[in-house]
Amino acid sequence: MTLMQTHRMMIVPRYTDRSLDWSLRMTFFLGLCLTALFLSPTANALTNARIVLHDGSSIVADIVDYRGDQITLSTSFSRDLKIDTALIKDIQASADDREVSTLLLKDGRRVETAPMMVTSGIMALSDGEIIKLADVDKLNPEPWEMGQGYAWKGLASAAFTFARGNTDSDQLDVAVNTQFDSTRDRITLRANVEQDSSVVSVQTEGNEGTNEVVRSREPSADNWQVVTKYDYYLEDWTNHYLGVNASVEADKFADIRLRSYLGPYYGRKLFDGAWGKLDGELGFVWVDTDFFNAQDTEYLGANWNVTGESEILGGDSKVYLTHVGILNVSDDNSVILDTTIGFGFPFFFGLEAAAEFTVDYDGAAAAGKKAIDQSYNLRVGYSW
Asked: Measured between alpha carbons, how far is residue 380 from residues 173, 308, 349 in Å?
């Protein structure tokens, strides 16, 4: 009878250097969580305000957010009630609320009012100016929305598997996706590492008739990739931008010692609304691939990128997409396609879980290597 033990752990490390012990790894992880917690924006709500609609109905709620002609309320029956501001007639602040509210108008001006009072769609500012509620773009905007610094958001996730028995296996899959966004530019970083290995125990007969166990460790996956992007928003076309992207990756089992590409592109925010975001980009890249055994290649390629996410399913869940395509225009018209589709949802203790499907197609794969590589992943991570 053979005893086999399998332990599975899903954790979110910040640093994945195998030379570090677990205590130091946990220190990095806790440091990341605390940093994200302190730097994350906090909602500056107006409490117990009375909102009167044009149909005569009224709601007593905390005003949590006001963005893009949509107001978000927290009530006794809903913590995330969204109402079109065109339906609002009056806003009456509570008697105890004398807090100064900062308003970012659609013409770019920043003004103040205290308290926030709206009567028949009209409101008075602290300096005596009268404006319409429809002129307001954001209530209590964050510093980056007023051109001061960056908004930092991201997701760090990982999956570990430790199995012990007839076959000992260690699997490590770590991914970090972070973005710094401002009113003038945007910086994106995506990185992932996959390191899998197995220890196989084989029982053999020794020279003196005794049984011996021979153990050997064999890697089953060894790849990593880092992608960086920089976008500069055009002043006259707010939904258009110019950018440059770079990538470095390696995959031992695909015979890729190192593959890199670099190039510019033109991008556009195809959709940016309450239901989600979708960006499309088109440009050129220079691709350089160093193989272990096959002949090295370098070529000019046409590059397109599509990224998006949506909360259309509700419940704090989101659907996201990342697609990168490169077409070799200088020689054999081979194509490289990397696509990830995922569904993320809240987990527990502030963590998030995600089910991902990834398919990569390499039309310039080395001889004897498969062109298509696909995987299904269940990840757990921390977002900020």
From this structure: 11, 20, 11
